[in-house]
């Protein structure tokens, strides 16, 4: 196991836990990285003002490599933001100027916001834009359950301090104050956590997924979601989560037929193009733990880019309208159904609140096949019949614990150590 010495003594607690792997019998289990409570996290939430974030000692645009060594990247996923404020300070003049700019311009004008029963409208917006906002997906009980889960897991992630006098360790290959629940997990998923797994099959999401996939024979790929702390002053570079192979196996033709796509001539390039456009390999639902405002880092989505064969623009080339193409106004409890091919990215969080968007990721019927088995059997047994059906491909066997599940760490080295010291069956890097 290799841990950067600059990660300080608090990292030693996770090392000890990993050396004692597997955990004692009795699932599910949560591995806590934090040796003792920290005052900053007392009564911590992901939807109210908090003292978490705004670390002035974390340089702007800095990222970490796999072992926690800082650097500035010009290209790639952690590419630096050339327009970012000079300092990570709430009332710094550069931050105030950016705050005024976002207050005046942030948000897609007239963005469509649908109700769960508006299936025709949801379908139209989704296939037109590559995403759709749907309100009222979570009522108060599941919303509160997920809020508490997000705060609990984020506390674990942030318990690993950064080098020097940085409050937090930046996640490998991400910009400061931005984390992924999925990639921070040593299993690369959160299906071991009831707060995530219990959201797979909801009364207001399953009918929508069934419509968009042309049937119920879709599958769960995983779960995770991203978040940004207050003080994430940089834009995240635009990206898509996957590139389509443009291959159309028989199972993709079958899904297209169920979606009433005209395939009279399957060799017609226009027909094939429509099939590719209308049968996304993956649909992700990001659930909103708080209202998205102009100030708290709302996700930006670029309409129509799910059909694009071109790469997104770089940070320096991105036009202003794309930077402002955010989902401001979407309320807590809503969700964003995303075609994972569409361009999207995170935006500056200049507020005092964490912006968390936990997710569940679903694969199209034509993509069904072996997947990393990251859901413990006991979690799977607790699900609804439909959730069990769509999660079968990620379910571990009874008595087996998925590799790394329950260990959260911002660095690749920490996650790799969890996998090396776990006899589980999930596959993660």
UniProtKB/TrEMBL annotation:
Protein's name in the database: Phytanoyl-CoA dioxygenase
Domain of life: Bacteria
Gene3D superfamilies per UniProt: q2cbj1_9rhob like domain
Molecular function via GO: 2-oxoglutarate-dependent dioxygenase activity
InterPro entries attached to this UniProt entry: Phytyl_CoA_dOase-like
The species this protein was found in: OM182 bacterium MED-G24
